[in-house]
């Protein structure tokens, strides 16, 4: 827990807020946190989390756009392809979150200065 003035925050709450994630997004990212070295496709994520495939697809797209997940293309034996995803290094994710937190702190500082 992180104690901030009048409220305690869990680290997952900070991650959720900083990255503007939904509960479904948090379920998806939680799966990746549990197996950070594993490449996973959206169907497996859907099965493991119990989330609808379209929900998982939106979540992995968002997490990839926020540079939390790495995406790779896998060619299928009978033609076509599928994407697989893996969690980026925790240090990279930490840096992304810290940049967001620092922007927030700077904004609060400016607002207090103008007050």
TrEMBL record:
* Name of the protein in question: Transcriptional regulator, TrmB
User: Which SUPFAM superfamilies has this protein been placed in?
Assistant: Winged helix' DNA-binding domain (SSF46785)
- Coiled coil ranges (UniProt) are none
What residues does the DnaD N-terminal domain cover?
A: 11-107
* Pfam families, sorted: DnaD_N
- InterPro entries per record: DnaD_N, WH-like_DNA-bd_sf, WH_DNA-bd_sf
- Transmembrane segments annotated in the record for this chain: none
According to the lineage, what is the superkingdom? Archaea
